[in-house]
Every structure is written in C-alpha cells, then in structure tokens.
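Continuing the series of single-chain predictions for the mutant panel. This is the parent chain; the variants come on the following pages.
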Amino acid sequence: MIKIIDLYVKYRWRQDPVIRGISVEFSGRHLVLGPNGSGKTTLFRALTGLTPISSGKILIDNIDLDEIYSKPGILATNLNEVYTVFHLCAYDHLRLFIDLMNGDLDLALKILEDLGLSIKLLRKRKPWELSAGQQKAFSTVIALSSNAKHILLDEPFEQLDPARKGKLIEYLRGYKGVVLLNTHETWLLSALKGWNTHLMFEGRIYGPLNTEKLVKAGLIIGDVPDAILKFTVAGKTYSLVKSGAGEPISKLITLDKIYELSLSYGE
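Parent structure:
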C-alpha cells in the first residue's frame, strides 16, 4: 500500500506548489487520469524520491519512503532517468537492474520483443540513444519485470502503436502487486476494467471511482447536487453525473480537452 498524507511539492522557480495537499491511499490497481501539466509526473517523482517534497508524508506499507530508499523488491518505476546512470548499452543496463532488483530477465526480454525492442537493438545502443517511445517502453519493461511489490508507470503507452498497446495491457493485467499508472488518455478506462481511477487537475487528486463507472459518466460544467464526483479546473467546477446526462468523459479522448471546454464555457 502507498499512503500519501497532506503532500506538497514546490519547485524553487515556481511561486505556486505543483502538488497541493494530496492525501490518498493506493492499494491494488489505480489509474491517475489527468491532463498534461496536472502534476502526475511530479507526484510519481516524489513517490520515488527523485523530487524532494516540501511537506507531508509518503508511506510504503506504513514505512516512511526515506527508510526504504534503495531497498530492492519494494518499489519500481519507469521514469527514464533511473535507468541511464552508467555508460553501458541498453542490454547491459537491463541485465544490471534486473539483477539488482531480483527481477525476471526472461520475462523482460519477452516483453521487450513484444514491444519491438530486440536484443540486437539493445546491444547496439545506450538507453539515451533509443527513440523517446523506445526509452519509455524499455524503462516500463524493467519495472514490470522487477517483481517489486509496487510499480509506478508514468505514461507507459506513449508512442506505442495499437497492437503493442494491447500487448502491454495484457502484461499489466497479469502483474502481481500494486500498480499505479498515470495517463491523459481516456481510452484506458475501457481497457482497464475493475481498476480504480483518480482524476488529477492542477496538483490535486479527486476520487477514486471505478473505471467502469467513470467511463459511463457524463461531464457537466457546474455544481450538480447529486454528482458522483466534482472537481475544479481553471476556477470552474465540473460535475460527473450518471450516464444519460452531460458529455461522456470518454469522448474527450484526452483530459487536455477539459481546458477547451473551460474556455468555451467562458465565452
């Protein structure tokens, strides 16, 4: 279980916090759905100790994050900078980190092959010499093969074609442990049935709602009394209501469209 208590994260060059008083628990399988710039990646960086927190607490299985730092088998992520620290080819990086995490090298190689990254390619290039999409797939596979109790996947479907997205979803469904995945793409609501979804806007988290319930929900600008969930974006209140009213949230394609709705509403 990952537990976050009143978490704030602020960068020195920004006046306002990026993460604003988040308190939430994650156990099982969770999707953090929000537009670009909502704070999703910063949250994951804080959860892995890559970005210092301003205040609050992060507990992994009721142990403070600082106390589990560098211990294998507890937490893994697909944030690229974790896996590009040595002047080694991608294949040697893979073997090193799988060994350090007591992971499954055979599984890693199988998933990589399914996602279009051959051993030959990995032996020819450093991780940073891979394309952006290949780098994301490479680090995602290391996390999925780590056997860690908790994995954090930041936009793992970036630049994958539909066939490879489907293959990655199957591996996600089979993972044993806590999975926390973030994205701005709403199509995942239908693909990840039974997961819990949290909406994230402007550094705040709302929810959770079951993905099957959320994919059927309608979006209305304004404060609706019997809404199943309410959130605030750009100073405006939005309400998610049961199917039959409002704009289906799945039709937005990405949650970046929320800001377009906000602008249209103000006209």
